[in-house]
Design brief:
This protein is of the alpha/beta class and 274 residues long. It has one domain: TIM Barrel (Alpha-Beta Barrel). 50% of the residues lie in helices and 15% in strands. The protein has an 8-stranded parallel barrel, surrounded by 8 helices. Helix 5 packs across helix 6. The longest helix has 27 residues. It is globular, with a radius of gyration of 19 Å. Bound molecules: pyridoxine-5'-phosphate. The site of pyridoxine-5'-phosphate has 19 residues, from strand 8 and helix 10.
Length: 274
């Protein structure tokens, strides 16, 4: 950091924070009645038109929302990268290797859970995770591990498993925010921030997601180490009221504004101004 009054480097152009839109819950609504409507592929195309940098879809073992044929169609049709979320099982590994999406995010999965409730236990599942990471990376797929913002999980992701990317679970931060617990929200956000810094230092690319809303996205977007946010449920819910395109465009604008603001604050601090 430059001392006050010292010449500072030019402000670099805004580093783009990517938005991955998770379209799982379009499939949840479709599956409530069977049939084909609403179509997750159409939602993915609309999301891209509204500013999504990529599309995320979770093929769960029980196929409760996204189906195998959704993955086939998404991979064939969308014009931006597909991020396939999956459990680290041999079945899912085979599917990923058949489709070769741009990226895979390995997540813990329990049949009885409503959503992905926590991060991977990287230490305990280390050898199976490593097996999946090696096979996927060998096929040219970028692999991330969905983990809690915890120093041990970060170290194990890099050193034990050999992942290229971690996605930090933002669920606890968003829950504290929903409960109007300002101190808890700040504490959880600080955990994410220090985990993001540690992950980047360990050579990992950093993503974040789960439970993000218009109210919480700014906090995550301000963490300059984070390269990508993955957001789904809130956007699909908001689309009921405002339409999918406008909901995504608004989220995109809030992310960009928060990122710009954070970069400007760093620059002002470097120049010795409050
Ligand atoms: N990232 C990961 C790894 C997830 O499992 C999910 C939920 O499927 C999300 C992001 C998106 O979470 P939400 O739907 O709560 O925005």
């Amino acid at each position: 950091m430059a001392a006050p009054g010292e010449a500072v480097p030019q402000l670099k152009p805004l580093r783009h924070l990517r938005l991955g839109v998770n379209i799982d819950h379009v499939a949840t609504i479709r599956n409530a009645r069977g049939g084909r409507h609403p179509d997750p592929l159409r939602a993915a195309q609309m999301a891209i038109g509204a500013g999504a940098d990529g599309i995320t879809a979770h093929l769960r073992e029980d196929r409760r929302h996204i189906s195998d044929s959704d993955i086939t169609r998404l991979k064939a049709e969308i014009t931006r990268p597909l991020n396939l979320e999956m459990a680290a099982t041999d079945e899912m590994l085979g599917i990923a290797l058949r489709h070769v999406p741009h990226a895979c995010c390995l997540v813990p999965e329990k049949r009885e859970e409503r959503t992905t409730e926590g991060g991977l236990d990287v230490l305990r599942a280390g050898s199976q995770l490593r097996h999946c990471v090696e096979a996927l990376a060998g096929a040219g797929i970028r692999v991330s591990l969905f983990i809690e913002p915890d120093p041990q999980a970060i170290e194990a992701s890099a050193a034990l498993v050999g992942a290229q990317v971690v996605e930090l679970h933002t669920g606890a931060y968003c829950e504290r925010a929903l409960a109007n617990d300002a101190a808890g929200t700040a504490r959880e956000l600080a955990r994410i921030e220090s985990a993001a810094r540690a992950a980047l230092t360990a050579g990992l690319e950093v993503h974040a997601g789960h439970g993000l809303t218009y109210g919480t996205v700014g906090g995550a977007a301000r963490i300059l180490e984070v390269a990508e946010l993955n957001i789904g449920h809130f956007l699909i819910g908001e689309a009921i009221f405002t339409g999918l395109g406008p909901a995504i465009a608004r989220m995109r604008a809030m992310m960009d504004e928060a990122r710009q603001d954070a970069r400007e604050s760093v620059h002002k601090t470097a120049r010795g101004r409050p």
